[in-house]
Amino acid sequence: MIFKEYSLEGKTAIVTGAGRGIGKGIALTLAEAGANITLATRTVEQLENTAKEIRKLGRRALVVPTDVIEKKHDRKPERDDLDASCIYRWPGWV
Questions:
Q1: Are 93 and 85 in contact (CB under 8 A)?
Q2: Complete DSSP assignment for 49-67
Q3: Which of 54, 65, 67, 90 has its C-alpha lying 20 to 30 A from 80's C-alpha?
Q4: For the residues 13-31, what does the mean pLDDT come to?
Q5: In angstroms, rounded to a whole number, what is the distance separating the alpha carbons of residues 28 and 22?
Q6: Edge-to-edge, what's the strand order for the sheet holding 36-41?
């Protein structure tokens, strides 16, 4: 149960490492508090599993395969990119 004072209703959170472990726990907790979640990690399958759990909570989940450490990675996450992606898929989301 989330107290009204701690509600994240109408907010969007970006969680890296959201496919498993602490990152997944954080993503689910934020979703339980009312936030929609942008999920980022290297393993798409793990992200999709977390996204399914978030959607079961009635929240939106956007999967963004990302490697935040690898400088040469094609999909380096940047705030503007993630915001644009969320807005494109769900207008008024961010």
A1: no
A2: HHHHHHHHTT--EEEEE--
A3: 54
A4: 91
A5: 10
A6: 12-16, 36-41, 61-65
- Whole-angstrom distance, CA of residue 74 vs CA of residue 4: 40
Measured CA angle at 13 (ends 40, 15), to 5 deg: 30
Helix (H, G, I), strand (E, B) or coil at 90: coil
E strand or H helix at 35: none
pLDDT digits (tens, 9 = 90+) for 43-90: 888 889 999 999 999 999 999 888 766 665 555 555 554 444 444 444
* Superfamily for the 4-89 domain: NAD(P)-binding Rossmann-like Domain (3.40.50.720)
Q: How far apart are CA 81 and CA 73, in angstroms?
A: 14
H/E element holding 25? helix 21-32
pLDDT given for residue 29 in this prediction: 92
Looking at residue 42, its pLDDT comes to 82
